[in-house]
């Protein structure tokens, strides 16, 4: 009899270890696959502008001397594609810093001023109007200033890219939480895409997004920033009517 008890006991412990090992193994496997997927996507995203640069460089080399228009167009394209690669690489580096939770500098940040300055840069660069409603002239919040700046900029930049009319931004306080919403009245996001848009490189419409200059990393970065501040980000959208992103930050 005792033997069976002992065996059962042994089985319990080993069983637990095996179960724990299996969970860990599955988790590592998923992480590894995600990493591989990232490298593969990143290489692909970088290859596209690189191929364009290469072909224009060839064209300029062959015809640039005789045809000034070829030279001009070629150099302009090489320039813009280089910018595209630069932007993508910067975003990838930023994401990797964020995910390793490195270099976060938390200090008291004044949010109204920060948001106003992000609005200013968007409106100046793209001639778009952003209505900003806030509940208090000054709102101090412990955060990483440059990350929060990025966050607001990404949401405003998306609102601008995927809509044509006004953009509304609100800053409110509710139940010990700060709530920031960015609303646009643009194309909206199909329901089946709403959970995926925060994934790396995910874009609803790849063809269209090449024109708008998207990388598919903006919302991944936005979410990483929100998570680093122990907050949450949600999306509400209606096709053809518009989209609201809501950021909830604990006070
Ligand atoms: P991108 O650089 O392509 O904008 P993001 O990660 O910022 O990448 O967004 C992912 C995708 O989510 C976008 O490609 C777009 O399809 C969709 N999206 C994001 N914001 C909006 C918005 N305000 N309105 C409509 N679609 C949006």
TrEMBL record:
<keyword id="KW-0418">Kinase</keyword>
<keyword id="KW-0547">Nucleotide-binding</keyword>
<keyword id="KW-1003">Cell membrane</keyword>
<feature type="domain" description="HAMP">
    <location>
        <begin position="1"/>
        <end position="33"/>
    </location>
</feature>
<keyword id="KW-0067">ATP-binding</keyword>
<keyword id="KW-0812">Transmembrane</keyword>
<keyword id="KW-1133">Transmembrane helix</keyword>
<keyword id="KW-0808">Transferase</keyword>
<protein>
    <recommendedName>
        <fullName>histidine kinase</fullName>
        <ecNumber>2.7.13.3</ecNumber>
    </recommendedName>
</protein>
<keyword id="KW-0472">Membrane</keyword>
<keyword id="KW-0902">Two-component regulatory system</keyword>
<feature type="domain" description="Histidine kinase">
    <location>
        <begin position="41"/>
        <end position="251"/>
    </location>
</feature>
<dbReference type="GO" id="GO:0005524">
    <property type="term" value="F:ATP binding"/>
</dbReference>
<dbReference type="GO" id="GO:0000155">
    <property type="term" value="F:phosphorelay sensor kinase activity"/>
</dbReference>
<dbReference type="GO" id="GO:0005886">
    <property type="term" value="C:plasma membrane"/>
</dbReference>
<keyword id="KW-0597">Phosphoprotein</keyword>
């Amino acid at each position: 009899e005792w033997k069976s008890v002992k065996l059962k006991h042994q089985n319990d412990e080993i069983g637990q270890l095996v179960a724990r090992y299996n969970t860990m193994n599955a988790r590592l496997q998923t992480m590894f696959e995600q990493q591989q997927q990232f490298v593969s996507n990143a290489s692909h995203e970088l290859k596209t502008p690189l191929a364009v640069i290469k072909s224009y460089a060839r064209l300029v080399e062959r015809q640039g001397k005789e045809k000034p228009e070829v030279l001009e167009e070629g150099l302009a394209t090489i320039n813009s594609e280089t910018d595209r690669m630069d932007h993508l690489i910067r975003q990838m580096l930023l994401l990797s810093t964020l995910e390793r939770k490195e270099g976060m500098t938390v200090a008291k940040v004044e949010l109204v001023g920060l948001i106003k300055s992000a609005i200013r840069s968007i409106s100046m660069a793209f001639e778009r109007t952003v209505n900003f409603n806030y509940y208090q002239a000054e709102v101090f919040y412990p955060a990483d200033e440059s990350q929060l700046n990025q966050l607001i900029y990404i949401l405003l930049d998306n609102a601008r890219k995927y809509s044509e009319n006004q953009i509304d931004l609100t800053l409110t306080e509710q139940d010990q939480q700060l709530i920031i919403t960015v609303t646009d009245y643009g194309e909206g996001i199909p329901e089946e895409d709403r959970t995926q848009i925060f994934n790396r490189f995910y874009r609803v419409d790849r063809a269209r997004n090449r024109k708008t200059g998207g990388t598919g990393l903006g919302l991944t970065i936005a979410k990483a920033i929100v998570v680093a501040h122990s907050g949450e980000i949600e999306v509400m959208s209606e096709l053809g009517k518009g989209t609201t992103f809501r950021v909830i930050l604990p006070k």
